[in-house]
Design goal:
This protein has 134 residues and is mainly alpha-helical. It contains five helices and no strands. It has one domain. Helix 1 (3-28) crosses helix 3 (48-68) and helix 4 runs antiparallel to helix 5 (105-130). The chain is elongated and about 55 Å long. The two termini are 16 Å apart.
């Protein structure tokens, strides 16, 4: 396992997650979330550091698991990995939240679709950065 490439990929994916999450959740979904303001924590913004920390840890775990199963099959491997992670994480995450909180099914489906795109893109990033040098 190449720790240097693993670390670079994890940091790149962390930055990617932070940027795309800001665009998606902070801009695209802002009106939807404002309409559901009664279900969110009033002090939610005080805990965003925890979201960033957990995202950093997740980014390293994401790339570590990718590296342990690395087969050198290029972008297709990254796409496949992103789909598998979506099924592993996002199914229980999004539909579990639907079961626990009074959120619309449409929001759950949007989150699921967004997670699929996000994890596939992260898998592609991992496949491009973690690959051996030519």
């Amino acid at each position: 396992m190449n720790i240097k490439r693993l670390s670079i990929a994890a940091i790149a994916i962390f930055v990617f997650f932070q940027c795309i999450d800001y665009v998606f959740h902070g801009i695209i979904m802002a009106d939807t979330y404002a309409a559901l303001k009664n279900i969110w924590r009033a002090d939610m913004m005080n805990y965003m550091w925890l979201m960033s920390l957990s995202c950093l840890i997740f980014s390293f775990a994401f790339v570590y698991i990718f590296a342990k199963g690395y087969e050198g099959k290029g972008i297709a491997e990254g796409i496949r990995y992103g789909v598998v992670v979506t099924l592993l994480i996002n199914v229980i995450g999004t539909f579990g939240q639907f079961a626990m909180y009074p959120i619309p099914l449409s929001l759950t489906l949007i989150w699921f679709g967004y997670g699929l795109v996000e994890f596939i893109a992260a898998g592609i990033i991992a496949s491009l950065i973690y690959r051996p040098k030519r």
